[in-house]
């Protein structure tokens, strides 16, 4: 399943292949779960980038869940 933002439908999706140990994947999933809109906005240059970061983090977390390393969001 590919996750993408409807406002970015016209952009090309880029597959990312990543190899992690179980411990790394689970730690990354827990780390990503701790972030929310305020952290995305605090680390972005504007609201559009914060939204892009949020969708990217969701996509990574979803991929970790599909690999069995995190609960589905």
List keywords for this structure.
single chain, 73 residues, mainly alpha, 3 helices, 0% strand
Distance between the termini: 13 Å
Which outline best applies? globular
Beta-strand level of the residues, as a percent range? Answer: under 5%
Structural class based on helices, strands and sheet pairing: mainly alpha
Give a count of the beta strands, DSSP E runs of length 2 or more.
0
Order of helices and strands: HHH
* Spatial extent as radius of gyration: 13 Å
Per DSSP, the total helix count is 3
The helix content, as a percent range, equals: 40-55%
Low-confidence stretches: none
The largest β sheet comes out as: none
| Mean pLDDT over all positions | 86
What do these coordinates show?
- The chain has a domain at 35-73.
- The protein has 3 helices and no strands.
- It has helices at residues 22-33, 37-42, 47-66.
- Helix 1 runs antiparallel to helix 3.
- The radius of gyration is 13 Å and the shape is globular.
- The model has no long low-confidence stretch (mean pLDDT 86).
Summarize the structure.
The protein has 73 residues and is mainly alpha-helical. It has a domain at 35-73.
Question: What is the strand and helix layout of this fold?
Answer:
Blueprint: H1 22-33, H2 37-42, H3 47-66
